[in-house]
Design brief:
Layout (H helix, E strand, L loop, with lengths): L4 E4 L9 H12 L8 H5 L6 H11 L6 H18 L8 H10 L3 E5 L4 H10 L8 E3 L12 H10 L6 E5 L2 H9 L4 E4 L13 E3 L2 H15 L10
Parallel strand pairs: 1-2, 1-4, 2-3, 4-5, 5-6
């Protein structure tokens, strides 16, 4: 037995920011005449920027040099920073409050920088709801590798089964499941059929909040999370 925690992705769970990422990726690759579709980019959500460049180059058979790939990554970050406006995902604030009410410790597990995550949460008045941020500066592999979620449970000091992972992208779900955490996926930008690796899939944050409340009634907030699809 023991108290629980939750490890949450940022974009697509707390932050509604993927439209900015999509625009930035299109602009970053535009000089190389690469045709990207939005679904292709949504499927790569949660993966570190530089790794996405390599994946897109492989998918498009684009022979960019290492320097050119760095330029694309820098351009993407520059465009994103210039257009980004922090917008909370519908239902995110209520979900974070629900975790607090139930006494669950909360971590953010994100592929962005700590500074960006801190600033975004603060601007959305949500920083006080989050105890821990696992960000891209850590010297560990990014999603879909299990390392980010493993680092979250290590720093939270809870057993894997006591920490609920919440993500909305295939890479994040793969990371959480590979780390051995119970995982709920949110179909924020992709259909549920793209997220079936998760233990449970919900349509939106409102549904997730209701699920957490119902689960609390049966578990009283202690021990391993009880998940049924």
């Amino acid at each position: 037995m023991g108290k629980r925690a939750a490890a949450l992705d940022l974009d697509g769970v707390i932050l509604d920011g993927m439209t900015y990422h999509i625009t930035a990726w299109h602009e970053a690759f535009a000089p190389y005449d690469v045709t990207l579709n939005d679904r292709q980019l949504y499927l790569l959500e949660g993966i570190k920027t530089r790794d996405v460049v390599d994946i897109v180059c492989a998918q498009a058979d684009l022979p960019l040099t290492a320097d050119q790939r760095e330029d694309v990554a820098k351009a993407k970050k520059r465009v994103y920073t210039s257009i980004f406006r922090p917008t909370p995902l519908a239902g995110a604030a209520e979900f974070l409050r629900t975790l607090q009410v139930h006494g669950y410790r909360t971590a953010i597990v994100t592929g962005t920088t700590r500074y960006a995550a801190e600033a975004t949460l603060s601007e959305m008045s949500m920083r006080s709801c989050v105890e821990l941020i696992i960000s891209s500066e850590l010297n560990i592999p990014g999603k879909p590798d299990p390392a980010p979620f493993l680092e979250a449970v290590r720093q939270l000091g809870v057993p894997k089964t006591h920490c609920l992972a919440v993500d909305n992208a295939p890479a994040g779900v793969s990371s959480a499941v590979g780390a051995g955490l119970p995982c709920v996926a949110v179909a924020t930008y992709l259909p549920k059929t793209d997220l079936t690796q998760a233990d449970h899939v919900v349509a939106n944050m409102k549904e997730l909040t209701s699920w957490v409340d119902l689960e609390y009634e049966s578990s009283t907030g202690w021990g391993a999370w009880k998940i049924s699809a």
